[in-house]
Amino acid sequence: MNRPNQLRRRIKGLTGLFIIGLVLSGATAIPLDSKLDWLVKFTGARHFVETPASTAAPAWMVWLVKVQPALHDTTAKYPSMAYGADWLAFGHFETRDTADLEICATSLARGMV
Question: What is the pTM assigned to this prediction?
Answer without folding.
Answer: 0.53
